Amino acid sequence: MANESRLINIYRRATRQLETTVRRADPRKPIILIRKVIMGDINKIAADLERETKNWLVVEIPQEYKKGSQQAVDDASKLGLTFDKTGFGQVHKEAIQALTEDAYLDFASGIEGVRRAGRGFVSDIVKKKINERIVSGQLEGKALDNVKREVKQLVEDTGFTALVDRGGKHWAIDSYAEMLVRTHVIKANGEGTRNRLLSNQVDLVEISTHATACPICQPYEGKVYSLTGKSGGYEKAPELPIHPNCRHSYMPYIED
Fold first, then answer.
1. Number of structural domains, the chain?
2. Integer Cα distance of 54 and 71 in angstroms
3. Are residues 244 and 122 in the same domain?
């Protein structure tokens, strides 16, 4: 969890920086300068997030994959099975690379959402500036305070939305990143387990049971599935994670 927290905290800090950047915008400046300053700062923060995310993924995804693989070996040992402990050959390396690339694409989508949100804030600031100039004739004193107050309220109300999901939920960049971190850690771990089991000709798995399982996961808990869907009498195993933030795992299962 400590390593997960490191990237999550980086995104939380970036969120505060992004909000401060918008709130500090000076509506009295020329429109072109407002856009240049705000987007310059936002693009720098976004670039830092891209770099930090890549650095985190290339370390943590392989580690979680290997943890999942080792867990498969340990669980199999409890069942009296001896697994081939051959290292991580080309197939495993390719799986790790694919997992890392998929994870980065998800993060990159959210980071692009930050840039998009920044452009939206600039547009809103410009509109509010123009409206106050039209109404008041100048942007000083009370008129300037009105724009600043409205911009501050806008940031508090909407935040930096990374994306809007199919259900219409607006994901703030820090919340989105937290969900992605936990989702891709579980995915890498699950793939490591799955691939180690299959490489040792174990196709049947039981889904782990947790006291805090949500209604989505409860129907799967403790049930036996086929990883490939080719073992007669068993449904194909669900992909892990079953949903964002899911903590369930595969455990090898041997028929009596």
1. 2
2. 26
3. no
Let me know if 249 is exposed, middle or buried by CB neighbors in 10 A (0-12, 13-18, 19+): buried
The interaxial angle of helices 90-136 and 173-199, nearest 10 deg, is 170
Kindly give the residue spans of alpha helices, DSSP state H, lying in the chain: 2-23, 31-78, 90-136, 141-158, 173-199
- Answer yes or no: do 207 and 102 share one domain: no
Residue span of the structural domain in which 237 resides: 203-256
Average pLDDT over residues 63-75: 94
| Distance between CA atoms of residues 80 and 97, nearest Å | 32
What pLDDT sits at residue 133? 45
Q: Same structural domain for residues 144 and 219?
A: no
Taking residues 135-140, report their average pLDDT: 46
Q: Are residues 216 and 175 in the same domain?
A: no
| CB contact set of 56 (below 8 Å; sequence gap of 6+) | 3, 6, 7
Tell me the backbone φ, ψ of residue 170, rounded to 5 degrees. Answer: -90, 120
The tens digit of pLDDT for each residue in 93-127 reads: 999 999 999 999 999 999 999 999 889 888 877 66
